[in-house]
TrEMBL record, chain A:
Pfam families: Thiolase_C_1, Thiolase_N. PANTHER family: ACETYL-COA C-ACETYLTRANSFERASE, NON-SPECIFIC LIPID-TRANSFER PROTEIN-LIKE 2. This is Acetyl-CoA acetyltransferase. Keywords: Transferase. One of its GO terms (molecular function) is acetyl-CoA C-acyltransferase activity. Residues 20-227 form the Thiolase N-terminal domain. Residues 264-391 form the Thiolase C-terminal domain. InterPro entries: Thiolase, Thiolase-like, Thiolase_C_2, Thiolase_N. It comes from the Bacteria. Transmembrane segments: none annotated. It comes from Xanthobacter autotrophicus.
UniProtKB/TrEMBL annotation, chain B:
Keywords: Acyltransferase, Transferase. Residues 17-38 are annotated as: Disordered. It comes from Xanthobacter autotrophicus. One of its GO terms (biological process) is secondary metabolite biosynthetic process. The keyword Acyltransferase applies. This is Hydroxymethylglutaryl-CoA synthase family protein.
Length: 397, 522
């Protein structure tokens, strides 16, 4: 029986660029922005980093394939750099690679960087990704609003929620994230909105309106990980990795009739395994806050149930009751989430961990929560029916 | 088609009719040849069906849009308008499927397939091979495309009736006309399928004649999008009134019949009153003139003699005789006699003619036809690059919509794969091919996506559950596709999947359409 990752690796430091429409910089500068911040927090020299993982989704519009774009952008000191890609979960995948490397004992200090330069594509919404040669011959021309609107309709139908109630709950979800991001200087969208604005926004894919969708952003985020012992020897307060679980759909949801479309199958499995790995019996009492992959407002609502932070069919009501507001029982998207911090695909998983690290080390400034001890990130890549879902749990030592 | 070693015979199946069972030995290609010792003899028409697009573009709306520029007199009624993903190939598949439904045994017996159109989708490759694959017909079949004149459909029927092979003839057309012209008002989009064989026949073939003449009333150079028409008084006087009666006279001679032996007369002609004048000139004044369907659907070009014939057959009684003729660089006339079986011929053509949606936006015609450049955004400018190797390797799955089924568990899956999916793993046992096209399904999830590119937004798609436990994310099609929701019953239609306007390439696949949007199966 594997002993798992719990308490074997520490986050030494993290960095995050400002997210948004960064017309001023390219992906190299975005990576450097996040990396220099992390290096500064870590108090180490670049040549102490022994291996690196690099996450970028769109190879044709970003820096390019392989590890060299990051090695060159950050002028890394002749070390191995592994490029990973796992849809929008790539940031967590890069983190997992670095963490596993340290846990294996092969290296003492490892680096994980995620970046995306979406505003060089010209697209509103995420650009279409390559799907190989066969899939385009039979699968629909889809977008993520289209994919996740199906989740919204199925969730509403499954739990008999009126379209008006669901729309208001989704509106509250977005309103809460907008409010949280107002004080976040790195966030893409820093303007508060009302539920009414969200509910009445132009429709993208019924029932998802414009304010139910996260923006596409430029940005980069970075983690430097090491052993808890080395972190302490460097005089740092380590944030310990308690669990990392990642589940990829095997095609069951889209090829057999068993799944009802109202939840994310992989999220439930990943969460169950992550809680077991971290030794958490009741996530509602154990966790201090959560950073969920709120690519769409409905994703946040459904995820709250999938990972056990709300009973099935109740997340929409509890959202309307304020349970997941910054002053609620389980604050979610304290930094604004994908919805307002932004969503540079390959960086988002690391951005979530950046907020966890800030909060757990008391560096979150105006949005600092009171004495948080344990946090969860949920980083989802792909569509509800076919995806890669990762859950990471980190905690104060 | 390619045959991969892991599944012997996998890609050579013909498939079950109606989808109730898997392929049997007798339905395999080649069985028709080896099981039939004697040379079959064609004696008449065994089945006929039509397909018309749902959109019916109102001529009054066409006039409202264009008559400030090109005034036209008679703007009554409507013409069919192919939806953006319909073309002669897809309409031909739809008509042929309905035709084969009437005579399922023809799936294995048919030995020739002719596709007739004046508006081919491809100069190369041959489209009949697509139709053959989409219809899951045996690979031992003689396929050909014909065209060049709107008479090509009836010419092909004439050739089939004079031949000895059971044959499927598919005529499908989208006549290409200049915006603002009379022809644009009169011609329309549609298809028809006809099976000829030794019987049991609906119509027995008594004789026919085809005349050839270098009479060019409309032309379109290779590579040109639009036709040029000549003055219609000349077409009527020197064309219809001279050539068609002579073809009819020759056909009656060969049938050893005289004009008074004929009870019905079918002649597509967009020139008002000309069909009646031809009937008089041919001595067929006493015969019932078939409905031109000009107000209901317009003239469907290469398909229209067969569309009118299918409709006229609904009114025929056993023993009645009919002449069906068509004009175009000459004329063809065929003499057919209704058998006792005509009494059971279902009025499916009428149902199709009556199943339409009134369309009042004229601009859909030039946009769907690619005649009007429009701002499609970045998502509409992405190239369609077809990996032809992948397309061929998966052609039975993609064109025939054939999935796989586990003989042990009965679990059905699409696309077929070496390892069949299970919730937590896979089934490794060999699977059998399992045609899905005729099974229909149920919507599990649905969306109407306004961000995705579509030639008729929103782009509608979702998960479809298919009997046997299979599921597939599919495009929805139809002007009303956005109304589809979970639980709705759907049927599957063969449509354009994507188009590459730089090269002219078209990719086809199956889409879901609300069962309620289609006329009831015959």
């Amino acid at each position: 029986m594997a002993k798992g990752i719990k308490d074997r690796v520490a986050i030494l430091a993290m960095g995050c660029s400002r997210f948004g429409e960064r017309w001023d910089v390219g992906q190299e500068e975005l990576m450097a922005e996040a990396y220099l911040e992390a290096l500064g927090h870590a108090g180490i020299r670049p040549d102490q980093i022994e291996a690196a993982w690099y996450s970028s989704h769109y190879d044709d519009i970003g820096a390019g394939k392989a590890g060299t774009p990051m090695a060159q952008a950050l002028r890394l000191p002749a070390i191995g750099v592994t490029r990973v890609e796992n849809f929008c979960a790539g940031g967590t995948e890069a983190f997992r690679g670095a963490v596993y490397a340290v846990a294996s004992g092969a290296v003492d200090i490892a680096l994980a960087v995620g970046v995306e330069k979406l505003k060089d594509t010209g697209f509103a919404g995420l650009p279409p990704a390559s799907r190989g040669t066969l899939a385009p011959m039979y699968l629909p021309t889809h977008t993520n609003p289209g994919n996740f609107s199906q989740l919204a309709r199925a969730y509403g139908a499954r739990h008999n929620i009126s379209s008006g109630d669901l729309k208001r709950a989704m509106g509250h979800t977005s309103m809460k994230s907008h409010a949280n991001a107002v004080t976040n200087k790195n966030a893409h969208l820093r303007k508060a909105i009302t539920i009414e604005q969200a509910v009445n926004a132009p429709m993208v894919a019924d029932p998802l309106g414009l304010f139910d969708c996260c923006p596409v952003s430029d940005g980069a985020a970075c983690a430097i990980v090491t052993t808890p012992e080395i972190a302490r020897s460097l005089g740092k307060t380590p944030v310990l990795v308690k669990a990392i679980q990642l589940v990829a759909s095997n095609g069951w949801e889209v090829q057999q009739s068993g799944w009802n479309g109202s939840y994310v199958h992989t999220a439930r499995i990943a969460a169950r395994r992550a809680y077991a790995e971290a030794g958490i019996a009741d996530p509602r009492t154990a966790l201090s806050f959560a950073e969920l992959h709120d690519c769409f407002s409905i994703t946040e609502l459904v995820t709250l149930e999938d990972i056990g932070l709300a009973d099935e069919g109740t997340a929409w009501k509890r959202m309307l009751d304020g349970a997941f507001d910054v002053d609620g029982v389980m604050p979610c998207q304290v930094d604004g989430g994908l919805k307002c911090f932004g969503h540079p695909v390959g960086a988002s998983g690391l951005r979530m961990l950046y907020e966890c690290w800030l909060q757990l080390t008391g560096q979150a400034g105006e949005r600092q929560l009171a004495s948080p001890s344990l946090a969860l990130t949920h980083n989802l890549g792909g569509a509800p029916a076919q995806n890669v879902c990762s859950i990471t749990i980190v905690g104060a030592a | 088609m390619p045959n991969r070693g892991w599944q012997p015979g996998f890609l050579r199946i013909v498939g079950p009719d109606g989808g109730a069972c898997g392929p049997s030995a007798s339905s395999r290609p080649g069985a028709a040849i080896t099981d039939q010792g004697e040379e079959p003899k064609v004696t008449g028409i065994t089945a006929i069906a039509i397909h018309l697009p749902r959109l019916r573009l109102q001529r009054a709306s066409m006039a409202a849009a264009m008559d400030w520029l090109c005034a036209r007199s008679d703007t009554r009624g409507a013409r069919t308008l192919a939806f953006w993903d319909e073309d002669p190939v897809s309409m031909g598949v739809a008509a042929a499927r309905a035709c084969l439904d009437q005579a399922p045994e023809a799936r294995t017996a048919v030995r020739a397939l002719t596709f007739a159109t004046t508006t081919p989708v491809f100069a190369e490759p041959q489209q009949a091979s697509f139709l053959c694959a989409a219809l899951r017909l045996p690979e031992a079949i003689r396929t050909q495309d014909v065209g060049g004149t709107m008479r090509c459909g009836l010419l092909a029927l004439h050739a089939a009736l004079e031949g000895s092979d059971p044959a499927l003839l598919i005529a499908s057309d989208m006549p290409s006309n200049t915006p603002g012209g009379l022809a644009e008002l009169r011609y329309s989009d549609g298809g028809a399928g006809v099976l000829v064989g030794a019987g049991p026949n609906l119509l027995a073939y008594r004789g026919g004649a085809s005349l050839s003449a270098p009479f060019i009333e409309r032309y379109r150079g290779a590579g040109h999008a639009l036709t040029t028409d000549w003055e219609e008084r000349w077409v009527r006087e020197e064309g219809f009134l001279d050539l068609v009666p002579r073809a009819i006279s020759e056909a009656l001679d060969r049938a050893q019949l005289s004009p008074e032996d004929i009870q019905s007369f079918v002649l597509p002609c967009v020139i008002p009153g000309a069909a009646k004048a031809v009937a008089q000139a041919a001595g067929l004044s006493q015969a019932k003139l078939a409905q031109p369907l000009d107000l209901e659907c317009g003239d469907t070009g290469a398909a229209h003699a067969l569309v009118m014939l299918a409709r006229a057959m609904e009114d025929m009684r056993p023993g009645e005789r009919l002449v069906v003729a068509q004009f175009g660089q000459g004329a063809t006339a065929l003499v057919l006699e209704a058998t006792a079986a005509i009494a059971g011929f279902a009025p499916a053509a009428s149902a199709m003619i009556d199943t339409g949606i009134a369309e009042t936006n004229y601009l859909k015609l030039p946009v769907f036809r690619g005649l009007l450049p429009w701002e499609r955004g970045l998502r509409g400018r992405l190239p369609v690059s077809e990996a032809l190797t992948t397309a061929y390797r998966n052609s039975q799955a993609l064109l025939g919509f054939v999935g796989s089924r586990s003989p042990e568990t009965g679990q059905v899956q699409f696309p077929p794969s070496r390892l069949a999916v299970a919730e937590a793993g896979f089934f490794a046992e060999p699977q059998e091919p399992w045609p899905l096209a005729d099974l229909g399904g149920t919507v599990a999830t649905a969306t109407a996506d306004r961000l995705a590119f579509s030639r008729s937004p929103p782009n509608c798609y979702g998960l479809i559950d298919i009997p046997g436990g299979a599921r597939l994310m599919m495009d929805f099609t139809d002007p009303d596709a956005a109304r589809l929701g979970p639980g709705d019953a759907v049927r599957f239609v063969f449509r354009i999947k994507d188009m590459d306007e730089r090269t002219g390439y078209r990719r086809y696949f199956w889409k879901a359409v609300a069962a309620s949007a289609l006329p009831a199966a015959a």
